[in-house]
Amino acid sequence: MKRTILVTGGTGYIGSHTCVALAEHGYDVVIVDNLSNSSSKVVDVIKQLSGQNITFHELDLTDTEALGEVFDAHPIEAVVHFAGLKAVGESVEKPLWYYQTNLVSTMNLLEQMEKHGVWDLVFSSSATVYGDPEQLPIPETASTGATNPYGQTKLMIENICKDVAASNPNWRLAMLRYFNPIGAHASGDLGEDPTGIPNNLVPFVMQVAVGRREKLNVFGDDWDTPDGTGVRDYIHVVDLAAGHLAALENLKEGWDAYNLGTGTGASVLEVVKTTELVTGKPVNYSIAPRRSGDIATSLADPTKANNELDWRADRNIRTMIVDAWNWQSKNPEGFGD
Length: 337
Ligand code: NAD
Ligand code: UFG
Prior knowledge:
A seven-stranded parallel β-sheet has the order 3-2-1-4-5-6-11, with helices on both faces. The chain has a domain of 208 residues: NAD(P)-binding Rossmann-like Domain (Rossmann fold). Strand 2, helix 2 and strand 3 form a beta-alpha-beta unit. It has eleven helices and 13 strands. The mean pLDDT is 97. Helix 1 packs parallel to helix 2, helix 7 packs across helix 11 and helix 9 crosses helix 11. The protein is globular and about 55 Å long. It is of the alpha/beta class. The chain binds nicotinamide-adenine-dinucleotide and uridine-5'-diphosphate-4-deoxy-4-fluoro-alpha-D-galactose.
């Protein structure tokens, strides 16, 4: 019997890569997504890449009734919860929308899980819960604190899950604190397709390389880093997807949190240089003021996930850029809708 996994936000960037991995590993995948930040075309791509059938329900997680019907219709055994709003700047402008969407969605989900006796959850948290980190690399035991409403929702959801875990010993909840996911499926058929102007570095750099944008603004060259530009722990989205499988297969009673990162950093200028080498295209940039809320360096200590989940992110920055470029050059307009 195949295990049925509900994937919320499964047509999104990280969710879709995880659905391919789950389906390839013999899980029955049921996706729910409201398509607010993704394309329905992704469902067919997941089917093609995995060679498996996938069930898709278009629904908003804030709709409790519709969500309950999905639990009634499928023998769901575990949930991987990606769905939510994720743009830091937007969360500062529209905090209530972020709290409403991210918190209510998650509470509805947990409620339906409890009602239907589904106790296993893997949640998309973020390195943003560490705020401006006091130590590098950052272990899971580091202090937490959010600097914007988006980050607050991640911390609040982690805490809600902690309380839920304490209420019933059946619960098994893993919080995955992602560092900076980039890259794409090696086929070039699945990748990140942000709407509007990309907020994140690599999608922006790719759009400069492909000719959709004129130049990159580098947000500050006076950070306390080797070349003065921000350093991040970039992780290949396919390695990240494998991290979800590992978390699902190593869930233990109660609540736990894991860093998913490589432990190695790259600066903004290193990403620019690597992109130029890989693509053979110039990436024009100019130095701009620091972006509000940014930090100098973010680096994971992934030892806990390496040991307890038997998982490791192996792909290096060059492979991440090669795969991101393969996706971008094959699909200059993304999924085109
Ligand atoms: P994404 O926007 O590509 O995917 C999220 C999906 O959720 C989208 O398909 C969207 O349509 C869907 N969605 C949003 N609100 C919904 C709702 N109310 N009901 C149903 N579906 C809804 O984002 P992503 O980059 O794949 O991120 C997935 C998760 O990982 C998010 O929770 C995000 O906060 C978290 N995360 C992402 C990053 C990153 O850099 N991409 C880093 C850390 C954590
Ligand atoms: N950067 C630029 N120019 C740009 C975009 C980014 O110079 O146009 C720089 C940033 O200043 C930073 C680095 O590139 O130094 C990476 O920035 P990203 O926006 O790609 O990533 P962040 O680390 O700021 O944030 C990401 C996610 C957050 C998440 C955080 C921690 O967007 O949601 O990682 O996991 F919280």
